[in-house]
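In the current project phase, the collection of sequences with tokenised folds has grown. A representative record is quoted in full directly below:
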Amino acid sequence: MVRFENVGMRYGMGPEVLRDINMHLKPGSFHFLTGPTGAGKSSLLKLLALSHRPSRGLLTLFGQEVSKLQREDLPSFRRKIGVVFQEFRLLNHLSALDNVALPLRISGADEDQIHTNVTELLRWVGLGEQMFAKPPTLSGGEKQRVAIARAVINRPQLLIADEPTGSMDPEMGLRLMHLFQELNKLGTTVVIATHDIELIRRFSSPVMFLQEGTLHHSGAEEYLKRHRRSKV
């Protein structure tokens, strides 16, 4: 599904923010991505979302090397990826329903089916009363739920989420994590960036830890033990 081979990334002529990243994610796997602020998590997510390309190294998604993709190939590739960024990236002139429906409309889905699926999902994430509201009238947590619903509505092959539960109360955060788990059971590969140690402890999935631009892999238990030692 995802393969990084000695990948480096820099912005412009600046220093590398990611160095010698090696990462193999199997189809249908579930991973947490964590690390201190400034370690490079957002940059790694941008590579996965195809919004940036590596400065060096080999990045392969869905069996194809990214450096060999033509510009016209990118839209079909991106439709396989669901992305939740912290800044939401909702369209303010569209309702919550229409924001979530966008991926389905782009793929040519039937309008009646779109309305049924989007309405059901918005109700499930607690936005049944706000589905016709536009983003400027929604709270941060409500916008986050709209962004998550939009990212998962078409069951992407790869789901990337940056602090998806950061604006949620604990109950809704767990509800959304269970949604990600259900998608994962259907075959979606999931990568969740988070600082929430309790989330990592509760869901016990493999952890990728970024520090100063380099990536380390561990099981959840091993990572939590290392985290406890660093706090002593």
Q: What stands out?
A: The chain has a mean pLDDT of 89. The first strand starts at residue 2 and ends at 10. The beta strands are 2-10, 16-25, 30-34, 56-61, 64-65, 81-84, 158-162, 189-193, 207-211, 214-218. Helices lie at 41-48, 74-78, 96-106, 111-124, 140-152, 170-185, 197-203, 220-231.
